[in-house]
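User: quick one
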Amino acid sequence: MTALVDATCAAALTELEGLGSARLCALLDRASPSEAWASLEGRHPGATPDALARMGQRCEASGIGVVWRGSPTYPAVLALDPRPPAVLFVRGDLSLLAGRRVGVVGTRNATASGRHAAGELGRRLALAGVHVVSGLARGIDGCVHRGVVGTAGEGRPIGVVASGLDTPYPRQNAGLWEEVAATGLLLSEYAPGAEPLTYHFPARNRIVAALSEVVVVVESRAKGGSLITVNEAVERGVPVMAVPGATVNRAADGTNLLLRDGATPVLDADDVLDALSIDHGRDITRRVDLRTRPSAVDLPTYRRIVESPATLDMLVVSDGRSLAEVAMSVARLEMAGWVAGVDGWWETIGDTLR
Amino acid sequence: MLATIRSATLLGVEGRPIFVEVHLSDASLPGFQMVGLPDEVCRGAYARARAAVLSSRLVWPNVRITVNLAPSDQRKVGSALDLPIALGVLVAAEVIPPAAVDGLAFVGELGLDGSLRPVAGIAPLVAALRPVTPVVPVASAREAHGVVGEAMRVASSLHELVGILVGGEPWPRIPDDVWDVEEPVVPDLSDVRGQAAARAGLEIAAAGGHHLLLVGPPGSGKTMLAQRLPGLLPALDAETSLEATMVHSAAGVRLPSGGLVRHAPFRAPHHSSSMVSLVGGGNTFMRPGEASLAHGGVLFLDEMGEFAPQALDALRQPLEEGAIRVARARAHTTLPARFLLIGATNPCPCGGGAPGSCECDEGARQRYLRRLSGPLLDRFDLRVGVHRPTVDELVSPGGGEPTAAVRHRVLAARALAVGRSGMLNAQIPAADLDTLAPVDTGAAALLRAQLEADLLTGRGYHRVRRVARTVADLAGAEVVGEEHVAAALQLRVRLGVSRRAA
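Assistant: Done. Structure below.
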């Protein structure tokens, strides 16, 4: 009974004005949530029995659990964090935080190759039994978790989000959001119903960094939000790794700068497993490219796209064949999964054919 | 003391014959009254007609003058009634014998010096007056000639006209330049370097009547390409030519010599255009808008995402029906508007470029694409990526294929399509695709694979098949093959995020 009341009080405390994470931590280090609530009731305008009842209903209706500093289920990895969350809202399996965890983050405006790399990384890490922490944003975040939930591996997705757990954002990831809650773990510092406010995102990034043993950046712009996660990771002594990109790719400027500054390069999931000291030698999923190899007719077109992303016009010029013939080649390469197109540009996806 | 003169007024692109009745009465005080729903401009006829009569050294009767414009429940617009009103007064004052104006109808604006000035809408006005012989200002002869040929009279001033009607002087000759037919100067495709995909897009759009969306960063030549499309289209058929002439005349747009719009018009309204300026309507006589001015030709919307959403929405009716029905409390009319729509847009607010080079924040990008999407985006069979030409393309010797060569193929393909189904390929109903545009096994397999991979939607599927039919027609192929479908797929650029990789 007390635990239930404590949980509701802890949840309700997060909604009180003037009580940020740091103050709430200090408060909860000295008193249990129900004691803290009782002391505030009548003195803080928001601390009403009504608010408490509403919060209880809301958490129960959406199946949202609450852990707080001092509760027996509070994640051990966060106990010694420099700026720990005072209260966490939870859906899914908290025990995943006892497993191996890698954070994978990146830009929202990712290129096709970046998206593919993220998906592949998620898939391989999951197969190796590593849980993947990410932010469920558009772009890289969504792709890496799609890669994780798409496998039957032991590794599960851990999503840390910047809005209430019953308020999916972005909407296009709402399905993925549910899947992560069902098969993995979904965490938020914000009470049910909370909107994803701008200042929530940097705070969310710090939890992603805090929960990760290694942070991998797949694609980031020179001033991307992913670099906040990187700074949080560096502050906590979490190793930072980055996937290199082409120098002409603006979406990879940030990751390339990280590499220049000494981040460890990630060419595939094995590099991450190395960093976690996990033996990947027995990985039975190792490299069988199931894609049909391009025929001799399509090969020049493919090679041209490997060189750098190209438009149909460029392909026609470099190929010297007619538009219809080049179109056939591109269609075959696309169907076989070698290239992908957007806004009239074609780029390669997956491992390059050697 | 009573006179009736035939004339006509304009509603939309139609002329309506009217009678100008003038009554003089010395039983009451001198004055002037005009009834029969004249608009502001028309009301000014009194001042102009009176001054013109006096300047022509004639007498303005100092009596009570009543002018009725019959039928009196119809709006009369513009200054075309100046001349019939002045003549009516002169006939009623017995300066001109009534027999002299019998079998003639008059339109034209008067200057204070008695000169006869052109008015907008001469073509529909004289068309409505047939079989009565119209008398038009000499400067409007070209427009009238396109509709009635030589069955007209011209005059340059009121003075001259009175001399003819009263003194029996001969009618002046119709000026010679109305007979010449000058070929319009359209920009040639050979000026375009590279741009293989966009060239193919123009050719297919012209051959199949497919609406075309050009997607590319600023400076990639979208406008340059669109301007070259009218040169690929066939000359207008007789009916369309006449309809287009009516529209241009009613809108007061200068007609080419010969008086008929014979070649596909090209209209490029700015993106700040209002809904009324695009589809017409607005004031009392319902001026035709840009969509109607593009009738039989090309309507080019540059920066399509910047147009007001309601303006773009209003284009849906003409795209579906080939005409715009404008209705107002007092009247309604139908404006022809069958055109090929060419849209141009950037892929995102910053203009985009190679993958990864876009620097727009996600929200702005989504908003931009949302503005583009919606019902209008669905009308484009072709979505072609246009890119800044590479240095290699710019310095390559010689230009591209000239308009004449491409046009030759376009006309052949159009003849093939019309011979097969009686319509252009863009109009083939989905139900008839299997009989009119059968695909071979390779093409069927490619389409199936695209649908299964979720790279193609159901609606897109039909559009791709129509475009593939046109591609096959251009190649002279009976059955639509894999290469035709592949080309059609390539000319349907995916906007935003690549589905497969997402």
